[in-house]
């Protein structure tokens, strides 16, 4: 079991779009295992994307709504409804804010062997699929906030994370 450390806000890998996966080999399968171990190694985690463990690859794992799995080179292909519950992020520890997301999404991609994979989820699973796909594009949930929630989040982030120490909280 390999639980990898989570990169935190300030680490450039979190703001850089991840590279598409082109090799479906033992190295990719090991990455998926490490991501799953990192997901399940701590309670309350709904997903982990490869950039969060310092790997620039379009891969994430999810575990929400009783469903656990992974997607390689994913894209959201359908969205419907709306939800606005609190959302947090392992890469911005200790903070959560009401974040607008679609209530139901379908994500399509590939599995670790290069076979087509599709997952449709509602509620927390839909939120996790959207959140992790955003990570692969260098987008953090605080980028999705609006109004007072955005202002409060940005104030707190500036006060909590030091730009002089990338990837580390003060």
Alpha carbon gap, first and last residue:
29 Å
Low-confidence stretches: none
- Helix-strand sequence: HEEEEEEEHH
Mean pLDDT, all residues: 93
Main sheet, how many strands, which sense, barrel? 5 strands, antiparallel
Q: Going across the biggest sheet, name each strand in turn.
A: 1-2-3-6-7
Helix content: 25-40%
Choose one word for the global shape. Answer: globular
Tally of strands: 7
Characteristics:
170 residues, five-stranded antiparallel sheet, 3 helices
Q: How would you describe what is shown here?
A:
This protein is α+β, with helices and mostly antiparallel strands and 170 residues long. The chain has helices at residues 26-40, 123-136, 147-160, and strands spanning 47-49, 59-64, 67-80, 86-89, 92-98, 104-110, 116-122. Strand 2 and strand 3 form a beta hairpin. The longest helix is centred in the N-terminal third of the chain and has 15 residues, at 26-40.
Summarize the structure.
The chain has 170 residues and is of the alpha+beta class. 25% of the residues lie in helices and 28% in strands. The chain has helices at 26-40, 123-136, 147-160, and strands at 47-49, 59-64, 67-80, 86-89, 92-98, 104-110, 116-122.
């Amino acid at each position: 079991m390999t639980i990898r450390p989570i990169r935190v806000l300030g680490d450039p890998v979190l703001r850089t779009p991840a590279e598409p996966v082109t090799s479906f080999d033992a190295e990719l399968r090991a990455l998926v295992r490490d991501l799953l171990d990192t997901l399940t190694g701590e309670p309350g985690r709904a997903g982990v994307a490869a950039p969060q463990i310092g790997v620039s690859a379009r891969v994430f794992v999810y575990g929400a709504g009783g469903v656990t799995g992974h997607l390689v080179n994913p894209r959201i292909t359908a969205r419907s409804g709306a939800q606005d519950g609190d959302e947090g992020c392992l890469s911005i520890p200790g903070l959560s804010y009401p974040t607008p997301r679609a209530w139901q999404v379908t994500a399509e991609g590939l599995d670790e062997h290069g076979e087509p994979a599709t997952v449709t989820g509602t509620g927390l699973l839909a939120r996790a699929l959207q959140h992790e796909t955003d990570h692969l594009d260098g987008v953090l949930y605080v980028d999705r906030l609006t109004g007072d929630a955005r202002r409060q989040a940005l104030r707190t982030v500036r006060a909590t994370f030091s730009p002089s120490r990338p990837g580390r909280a003060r």
